[in-house]
Structures are given as C-alpha cells and as structure tokens.
Amino acid sequence: LQPIYRKDYTLSEYLIHTTELEFDLTETQTIVTSKISFYKNPKSNKKTNILFLDGIDLELISILVDKAKPDYKLVEQGLEINNLADEFILEIKNCIHPEKNTSLYGLYQSNGNFCTQCEAHGFRQITYYLDRPDVLSVFTTHIKADKQKYLVLLSNGNLIKQINGSTTWHDPTPKPCYLFALVVGNFALKEDTYITLSGNEVTLKIYVQAHNINKTQFAMAALKRSFAWEEKRFGLEYDLDIYMIVAVDDFNMGAMENKGLNIFNTTYVLASIDTVTDKDFIDIEAVIGHEYFHNWTGNRVTCRDWFQLSLKEGLTVFRDQEFTSDLHTRSIKRIEDVNTLRTLQFAEDMSSMQHLVRPEHYIEMNNFYTLTVYEKGAEIIRMVHTFLGEVGFQKGMQLYFQRFDGDAVTIDDFIQSMSDANNFDFDQFMYWYSQSGTPEVSIVSDYNHNDKTFKVFIRQHSQCDYFFPLRFALLDDTGTKLESGILTVKDKEQIFIFNNMDVEPTPSWLRGFSAPIKLKSDLTFKQKIFLVRHDSDAFNQWDNAQQLWLSLILIPSSINQDLFFDAIEKVLKNTFLDGSCVSLVQDKSLICEILTLPSEQFLHQQQEIIDVFEVHDKREKVINKIIERFKLLFSKIYSKLNIYQPYELTPEAVGNRALKNICLYYLAISGEFELAFEQFKSANCMNDKMASLKALIVSDNSYKNIALDGFYHEFKNDTQVMDKYFSIQSSASTANVESIKVLMQHKLFSFNTPNRLRSVIGSFSQNYVNFHNQQGYELLTNIIIKLNQSNPQIGAKLTSVYNHWQRFTPKLKALQKQQLEKILAIENLSNNIFEIIQAALK
Ligand code: DPP
Ligand code: ZN
C-alpha cells in the first residue's frame, strides 16, 4: 500500500464544466446516470488524451463518450478512458447498493432514509468521477424514487422541477464533488426564513424524523444566529435562496457542510431543555455555526488538495470558537477549548499518529480529520489574529476572498493574503505548518531592586525557532497591571527588559493561551496562588489553579496544601458568603472550572511512563482531601444555589448550575446520595438531571439503580438521551468488561450506529482503570475486527486508542502490542485501520 504524498500534487489534466446526475432509488438498488462535460485543463501543458476516473464498488452498466463506445478499461479503484478529444461528453450508467452500505460513506441508508457523505472520497462510491477537491463543476441532479414511500427528495442548490415522485435540483455555484449531497426519505420539516443584510429572503429548512420535530426549535434559532453573526463580524452573507439541514441518526462525524444541504448527526441538531445539557446546547449551536461558516471558508473557497484540509477546518473552527465566545462567555469558552487541545491534541502529538497540521502523506485521508488539523489548526489561525488584530485579520479575509472566491487553494495562499493585506512577514511563522509536535518554551525572570529593572529570558527548546505571540501582563501586589501587551518571540533565546519597575511585579504569561506551546516558567508557588486569586486574565486564573492541582496530585510534597486550600476557600467564600474581601473571581462558571481537577488523561501526559492505576489513586486522594476540607462549604453553596428557577441559557444561569453541580458531585463522593437523588427527582432540565445521575453513579449506593431505571423508563424512546444512558454507565467507576458486555446485549445497543458505539465502547476506552487490562483490550480488538468489515472509519478511530501503547507500563504495553499485531494479521484489513496500525508498530 503506497501512501499519497503532498509533494506529488499535479494539476488535473481534464476539468469539468457541468455534471448532470440522475438517481433512480429503489429498495434493492440505485441506478446512477451521469452526463459530464469535460474539457482539457488550459493550465496543464502535458500532452495526454487519457482520463482516469475514481470509482469504488460500482457496477458499470454502460459508458459513452460523445454518444459512442469509447476505448476504456476498468482498473483498480476506477476507470481509464483513452483517445479522448480536448472536449467531450461522458455518459455513464452504474448501479450501487446503498441498502447494503454499512460504512456510512458514499450513499447509504439511516432508518430507511437515504443520505450521503462524500468528504473526503465518498463520491467515488456513488459514480465514476474526478474525485478531487480542485475539480469544480456546476451540478444538476434529478431524483426518482417511489412516491408512495419517499416524500422528500433533496439535493444541493435550488429546486427547479418537481413532478410526482421526482425532483430536479440545480446548484449554480461550481463545487467539488465532496460537497455533493442527496437525501431521500420521509422527514418532518421545520421551516423559517432569514432576511440577509442586503434584503434577500432565505428559506431555512430543517428535516428530521417526525418524532423529533419538537426538538428543532433551538437549532433553527442557532442557524439564524449563525447567519447574523457571519454578517456582523465578517461581513459575509449567504448566497442561495434556500439553506437545508437534514438530521440522521447514523453518521460517522458530527456534520457535513454540503452546499445548501448540510447533513448532520442528530446529536448536533436535536435539543430541548428536557433532553440536552447546557454544554450540549452550546456545542449544538457551535456545530450549526461551523457548518454554516464553511459556506465561505470551505465551499466558496475550497482546498486544492486534502493536505490543505486545515485551510478550511482550522479557519472554520477558529470562526466557530469566536461565534461561541461572542454569544456566551469568552473566557470559559477559551478554558474549555484549551483544555481539549492540551488533553487531546498534545497527546496526539506524543502518539504514533503525530502529524503536521498540513500532513505530508496519507494512506486513508479520513484518518486525518484530527485534533491536530482542526484544533491546532485553529490555534495557528488564532495566532495570526493575535498578531494582526481584528481589523488587520478582517482585511486579510477580504483580500483572501477577493483573490480566491470560487477557487481551490492552499494554506500558503491564505497566509499570503493575510501577509499582503497587512504588510506582515509570516515566513518564519510557517514552521507551525511544517514542524510537528508541541513546542517547549521556558521563561525565567529577574528583578533588580537597584536599577528597578525586570528582565525576562525566553528560551525555545525545539528543533526550529517558532514565531509566536506571547501575551503577558506584569501585575503589582493588588493585581493592577503595571505593563501589558504582546511579546513577539522568534529566536532561540530572547531577552526582554522592563524598566522603571518600582516594585517586583508578578508576571502573568501566555494570557489566554496566546500560543499552543508547553510553557515552563519560574513562577513560585506563592505567585501562582496570587494569580489564581488576582489575575485579571480568567484563563490564567484557571491555568495556575490547574498547575497547582497537578503538583498536588503528582508530587504532593512539592506544594503547601494548606495555603493552596486557603486560596481556594477565599475564591469560594468571597463570592458566596458575603465575606468582606473582594475577589476577582465572580464568575461561577470560572469557579467551577477552578474546582475541577485535571483529568486522568491530562495527567497521563505528564508521566514519563503512563501508570493508569497510580494516576487514578493519586487523583482520588486529592478528591478526598478536597472533600475533607470543603464539605461544609459545598453544602452551604449547594443549598444556596439549589433553588427553583425557570431554565435559561444565560451565562449567569449556566454558571449557577455548573457550580451547584460540582458541589453536588463532591458531596455525593462524600456519601450524600440522598441529596443527589432529590435533585434527580426534582430537576427541571436535563442538565441538572444528568449531573445528579453522574453524582449517583460514583459508587454503589441504594439510589443508583433506582435512578438509572427511572432514567431509562423516562427516556427509552429518545435516541439522544439513550446515548447518555449508555455512556454514563460505561464511564462509571463501577463499570467493568462484564458490565460492558451486558450493555452490548441491550436491545437498544446497535453495532451499526456510531453514536451508540461511541457511547458504549468509546466511553469505556476512556475509563482507564477499568478498561486497561487484557479483557478490556480483547473486547476492543474484537469490535475493531468487526468494524474493519462494516465501518472501517469508525474502526480506525477505535484503533487509535492503542496509539499511545509505547508509553504504558511494561505489562500493559506488551498487551497492547499483541492487540495491534492481532489486528494487523486479519485478512482484508482496511486502509483506514492498516495506516493506524502501521504507524503504531513502526
Ligand atoms: N467537513 C466536516 C466538518 O468538519 C467534517 N466532514 O465540518
Ligand atoms: Zn469543518
């Protein structure tokens, strides 16, 4: 199996003017007829008259070039046609079997409805085509299906014809085939309109299965907020008269930005106060925004080749992060995003699948829809924004669209636009795309009483010298800023000197996490405590608390626990018990974040050799210390906050619930199950119900099963809530391989629905102490082997659990290696899984 390399990119010899497709869908087969008008690429100077078209698992019925039988042959993974003119019309008829397609890639069925997923290479499983993002075409799509059975027949663009049992769609904007979509089935429709800034009326439609129609209101409102935010912040409007979203239960990813016809995993559409948590609401809004924002960053300007994936994903994630930050609480959003980045992306950087934000090669492109491409990619865009400021960044965006609207381009093209619009040199900055791994930086400072100078020494420990913004402030002992701004770091070693410092300042480094690096500073324990209480940068308040928790967990002797707990107590008391001193920590969501310990997964990264049991025990010890010290205070705060209030999604209300529920969690661990059970019974929203259920399952107690059963009976008909029901059990400290096998026998467990697999197996694989043993591995491996046949994309995702095997304690390391070898030995191993295993065993 040969990888595909970025350096081997060549232009397509032929391009496409128009593509006319006809789909004839029945229960037992789908006939696809295509009429494609090709022309020689004027930019290519190669003399060739051969065309290769991608095609996988297709049954060719007929083929004509300019109405005559061409000189062609079927080859591996496609079709080769010879002796072609410079312009010609190709007509192909082929048969496919969506009814048997369990890979959820190409055209497939979910609950009897047909839908598609074409990114990255799914279109070639529909018909023969130039399946590459730099070949753009206008599409016209005719759909025929049994009109008794299927009432909704959709594709991209505008509906131009509808007669009994068939529709015709025309999408005027040229697009690559990965943005093609088709949906046929029975759905209920939620409809609304949006008037754009320039006065165009856009029809908004959300299609869901009929029983879900009462859970679409939030998504519709979120969609309108996305349209409005895009106009306000980026000055960008929607370009068609109709925008459709279809939600399906069976989907490999979160959602897909197909032009004018987004297809979503139901998880990211369906919402009601009774069925989703506060975090779910905000995540749903973010994904709806993300897919909408792709209309400009991804669809109108797309990627030249798949190595450029971060061009659209990094940029669009940055934009959706900004959307959420503008609509909710910026600092909390930042804390959550950085926590995800440091927990998962930094770990990916330490794993066998470490790769560049712009990868150099792939065997299976779907393995590169990763935290590195998405989240680290977004951090790089954020640094561009930090350097240029909002105005400069928007100038760069304008130039980018001016230059490339309608094109398929590269990451270099984007950065060049930012550079040219601002006269800013990004040459050295490009290391962020050409070097993998997380940069390590250290910082040491020195205050001189005599000459009142504060000297800062910054040192980079990486292969290359990165170019990045270091946002900082120097604070006096009341927390007032003496100096603040952005240092531009670019050399291996740099010194910055601040003069006229009458008192020794406390530095607050890397505010808002202004670069995705690992920073080691010489801050003392006391300075960190001070920053937890007094830094005006909420991110750094949280981050210093995290560092202190980390020390307390991993090296308890390294810090003074009493002093740290005194500071935490002040943070808690000042705000709630009308104490006399004023704290800067007023935001209850922030207090909740400060009270949340680093996850086991994050702690693993700090270990040379991962010992899951040791980490778990050490973390539990600290939890017990917290309870010992704060139990009374938690009770008081809990009763103060646990008063009936109608549900709202305001920062204030979200913060109240967050803090109340973390108190409940600690109280439950201390044995207060009755309190949790009371909340379980009286909760007026899923957020509080889930929180109480999570509190009840921390250990065995008399309420646990009553609550779980009650939850099941109340929600057994709700697919999304049932995912929570499964995942909460798989994550429980009482779960083990046997109990997971029991869950897999449950009548609502389904192997073919990725959401359900993620909620059972995905969750269990992160339940470290219970998963990491021979039986746990064997369970996972057997599932991977089954998925290799039915859904290799999800199989590869689960295989990635083993990507860290080399860092585990010897016994677990050896066991994981055996699993990798066992999977490698199976017959017909998919490219997806092969690539992951090969990297892991290299
Ligand atoms: N392009 C999708 C998204 O990230 C994933 N297929 O929005
Ligand atoms: Zn995306």
SSE map:
Blueprint (H helix, E strand, L loop, with lengths): L3 E2 L8 E12 L4 E11 L10 E4 L4 E7 L5 E5 L2 E5 L4 E10 L9 E5 L2 E5 L19 E9 L6 E4 L2 E6 L2 E10 L6 E4 L2 E8 L5 E8 L8 H18 L7 E7 L6 E2 L4 E5 L12 H16 L8 E2 L5 H19 L2 H20 L11 E2 L8 H34 L3 E2 L1 H12 L8 H4 L5 E9 L4 E8 L7 E8 L5 E9 L3 E6 L7 E4 L8 E4 L3 H10 L3 H17 L6 H16 L11 H8 L4 H6 L6 H30 L9 H19 L3 H10 L3 H11 L7 H12 L3 H13 L5 H9 L8 H12 L2 H4 L2 H17 L1 H8 L10 H15 L6 H11 L1
Parallel strand pairs: 2-11, 17-18, 18-20, 21-23, 24-30
Antiparallel strand pairs: 1-22, 2-3, 3-8, 4-7, 5-8, 6-7, 9-10, 11-14, 12-15, 13-14, 16-17, 19-20, 24-25, 25-28, 26-27, 26-29
Helix pairs in contact: 1-2, 2-3, 3-4, 3-5, 4-5, 4-9, 5-6, 8-9, 8-10, 9-11, 9-13, 10-13, 11-14, 13-14, 14-15, 14-16, 15-16, 17-18, 18-20, 22-23, 22-24, 23-25, 24-25
